[in-house]
Each structure stands twice: as structure tokens, then as C-alpha cells.
């Protein structure tokens, strides 16, 4: 894996050190810089600023409100607000060029529902609608009417987010947050944290691969799939590991008419349009923790599992040709698939922003703001993310989310 030349920090002590400069780390840096201005020194340590292998760059870049937990719905609603207003928000940091338009494709998600899952699906839709989401439940007849290319023979219906769900430009969001943070005085360096020094219940310094040691007032773990590596440096463990997800872009001999949503099949396979092509993926058969540097592609996932599921659900997909494919990593929280956000109760200046299990990109605006609020104010000021606290991990008390892809 190619790594750009490492760079030393400009000073020996910082108020805040953020480990990881992808979308969660950069969102955190952005919100902190807006709250603190020049009154705090902030360092972001990113091991590869090309982001070639980052979960942000390799994600499928989508956002939905179809969750079973109210807090996850609200997190996404704030994400939509940020996506819609991103260009205007970032404009002050792009003096000589247009700020990024995230190209939000508001096509919605369509969750296929088995006959036995109808009641639970309707309850989720009712919850989402009570929170302001635009989800509707469609019985098989109306579902077929709206999406005539869909095979509904084995379905009990489907829940469709008719508005404020879809997909967008992941790197546009990352680059915007990063540029705004740097423009507000945050220092980014290509480097890697190799160790943490903990004294009397506080992280006092971080050791870098280039040999420097930087003192810190607060340490933020935003290391994505490597979150457990950083937690281990402070002497504790979180159940977060990299899980591989294979993505395939394919062409179909038969086009799909109309405005196609992101279809989530009963099998776990998803498919959505990408211009004249289509993007698809699934929960792989070999689903288990991977090595941090393992991005090997398993092409057989498409032929053996994805294509049969696609053809069953959308019979027009009888002649497909893969155009490109890639492997990305989910920072998978094996306890309950939800993020871990908040300070450690004993190492009191160690902040978690980890384990979002494939939702990190869409949740990054709200998570970055929440982490900033905890650091600056000592409490959540907007969305209360206390259900994501670290304390549930040693207690083995999952905060469960039913709607996991």
C-alpha cells in the first residue's frame, strides 16, 4: 500500500489531537474549529491523505432515514440538512473556486419486506413518520404499480423513503470538511500514531511513527477500521474491526425505466442506478474480521450470490456485465452495529468516535458536531448521543438497531 511521505508536526503540544482524518475525523475537526476558532490548537494525524483505502472513499455514499431507533433517524435528518446546504456552508473556504456540490440524488431507499416481516416494517415506518420522515409502506399491489420492474411475488410489501434519502459525493463531503477545518487553523499531517502515554487516567501524549511525541489535552479516536488499534494503545478494548464489503458497478442490457431507488433485497443485496450503470453489493458470505491491509477482491461474490439475487428481484437484470469493482472496509461494531461516541470513563480525556458499521459517512455531520459539543461544553447541546456511550461495551448492553444492511 503506497503511503505518502510522513510529515512532522509543527509544534510539540496541542489542545486536541484527532487520530484519523477521514470524514468522521474531519467533521470533528471542522465543528471544533468553528466552536473554538483560534483559541485552541488542533492536530489531525492521518496515515494516508490520499484516502485511497479509507472507508470514506470506498463507501457507497448513501443516506437514509429508515432506522428502527429514533436517534439514528434524527442523526440522518441532520445529515440531510448538511448535505443540502453544504455548498453554501463551505463557500467561505473556497475563495477562487466553487465549493463542492454533493450532487444529492434523492431517489430514496426501497426496503423489500417478507410476508412475515410486514408488521415490524409497518411499526418502523410509523416511528419514522412520527419523527418527520417521509417513509411509506406499500402493499405488493401498489408496490408493483409504482415499480413495475420489481418482482413482488414473494414479498409482503416494501417501505420506501419517498424523500430525503439517496446518495451523494462522499469525497466532496470529506474534502469540504477538511478544507474548512484547515482554513480555520487546524493542522493536518501525514503521519501515524504508534503509541499513547497514559498517566493518572489521562492521555498525556501521542507518539508518532516519525519519532516525535506530541502532548495533548484531549485525544479523539477517529481511526475508522483501525479504532481498536488506537484504543489498545490506551490500554482498553472495543469490539470494532474491519469487515470487507465488495462493490460492483455493472451495465445491464435492459434499462430500468423511471426513478429507481436504492433497492434493498430480502437477501441483503442492494442495487441502485449510477447514471446509465448500476451499483450493487451485499453482505459477503465470508463475513468476518479482515486484516487492516486486506483489500483483496472476491469477484465470485457477484456471480455466485449477487447476480442470482438481482435477477430474482428484477427480472430485467438477465444480461449484466461488471464494469468495475472494489473492496472497502466497514468499521464494524460487533456488539450492536451502532457507533461508540463519548469519553472513556477512566481515561477521561480519551474520546471515541468509532464503530459506525457502514453508517459513518451519513452520520459524520452529527457525530462530529456531538464530539465537538462534548469537548467544548462537556455535554451534548443538540442531539443527545448518550445511547452511543462507551460504557455499554464493558456492560455488554447492546443498543440495538434492526435496520442494518
UniProtKB/TrEMBL annotation:
Superkingdom of the source? Bacteria
| Listed EC numbers | 1.-.-.-
What are this entry's molecular-function GO terms?
Answer: oxidoreductase activity
The keyword Nucleus appears for this protein: no
Record domain FAD dependent oxidoreductase: where: 15-374
Listed A to Z, the keywords are: Oxidoreductase
Key word Oxidoreductase present in the record?
yes
Specify the enzyme's EC class, one word.
oxidoreductase
Gene3D superfamilies, from UniProt? D-Amino Acid Oxidase, subunit A, domain 2, FAD/NAD(P)-binding domain
**One Pfam family cited in the UniProt record for this chain:** DAO
- Name of the protein in its database record: FAD-dependent oxidoreductase
**What species was this sequence derived from?**
Mesorhizobium australafricanum
Amino acid at each position: 500500500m503506497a503511503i505518502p511521505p510522513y510529515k512532522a508536526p509543527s509544534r510539540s503540544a496541542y489542545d486536541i489531537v484527532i487520530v484519523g482524518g477521514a470524514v468522521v475525523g474531519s467533521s470533528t475537526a471542522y465543528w471544533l474549529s468553528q466552536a473554538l476558532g483560534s483559541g485552541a490548537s488542533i492536530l489531525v494525524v492521518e496515515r494516508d491523505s490520499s484516502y485511497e483505502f479509507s472507508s470514506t472513499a470506498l463507501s457507497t455514499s448513501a443516506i437514509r432515514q429508515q432506522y428502527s431507533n429514533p436517534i439514528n433517524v434524527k442523526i440522518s435528518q441532520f445529515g440531510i440538512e448538511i448535505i443540502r446546504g453544504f455548498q453554501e456552508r463551505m463557500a467561505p473556504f473556497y475563495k477562487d473556486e466553487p465549493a463542492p456540490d454533493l450532487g444529492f440524488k434523492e431517489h430514496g431507499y426501497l426496503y423489500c419486506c417478507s410476508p412475515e416481516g410486514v408488521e415490524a416494517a409497518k411499526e418502523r415506518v410509523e416511528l419514522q413518520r412520527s419523527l418527520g420522515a417521509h417513509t411509506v409502506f406499500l402493499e405488493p399491489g401498489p408496490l408493483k404499480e409504482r415499480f413495475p420492474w420489481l418482482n413482488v411475488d414473494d414479498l409482503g410489501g416494501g417501505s420506501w423513503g419517498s424523500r430525503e434519502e439517496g446518495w451523494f459525493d462522499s469525497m466532496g463531503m470529506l474534502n469540504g470538511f477538511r478544507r474548512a477545518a484547515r482554513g480555520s487553523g487546524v493542522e493536518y499531517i501525514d503521519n501515524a500514531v504508534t503509541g499513547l502515554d497514559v498517566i493518572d487516567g489521562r492521555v498525556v501524549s501521542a507518539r508518532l511513527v516519525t519519532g516525535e511525541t506530541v502532548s495533548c489535552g484531549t485525544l479523539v479516536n477517529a481511526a475508522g477500521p483501525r479504532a481498536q488499534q488506537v484504543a489498545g494503545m490506551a490500554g482498553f478494548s472495543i469490539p470494532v474491526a474491519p469487515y470487507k464489503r465488495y462493490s460492483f458497478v455493472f451495465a445491464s442490457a435492459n434499462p430500468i425505466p423511471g426513478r429507481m431507488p436504492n433497492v434493498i433485497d430480502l437477501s441483503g443485496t442492494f442495487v441502485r442506478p449510477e447514471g446509465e450503470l448500476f451499483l450493487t453489493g451485499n453482505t459477503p458470505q465470508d463475513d468476518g474480521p479482515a486484516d487492516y491491509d486486506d483489500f483483496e477482491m472476491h469477484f465470485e461474490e457477484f456471480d455466485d450470490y449477487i447476480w442470482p439475487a438481482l435477477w430474482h428481484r428484477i427480472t430485467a437484470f438477465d444480461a449484466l456485465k461488471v464494469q468495475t469493482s472494489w473492496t472497502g472496509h466497514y468499521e464494524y461494531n460487533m456488539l450492536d452495529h451502532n457507533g461508540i461516541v463519548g469519553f472513556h470513563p477512566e481515561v477521561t480525556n480519551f474520546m471515541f468516535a468509532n464503530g459506525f458499521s457502514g453508517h459513518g459517512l451519513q452520520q459524520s455531520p452529527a457525530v462530529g458536531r456531538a464530539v465537538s459539543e462534548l469537548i467544548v461544553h462537556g455535554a451534548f447541546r443538540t442531539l443527545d448521543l448518550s445511547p452511543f456511550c462507551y460504557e455499554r461495551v464493558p456492560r455488554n448492553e447492546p443498543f440495538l438497531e434492526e435496520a442494518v444492511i
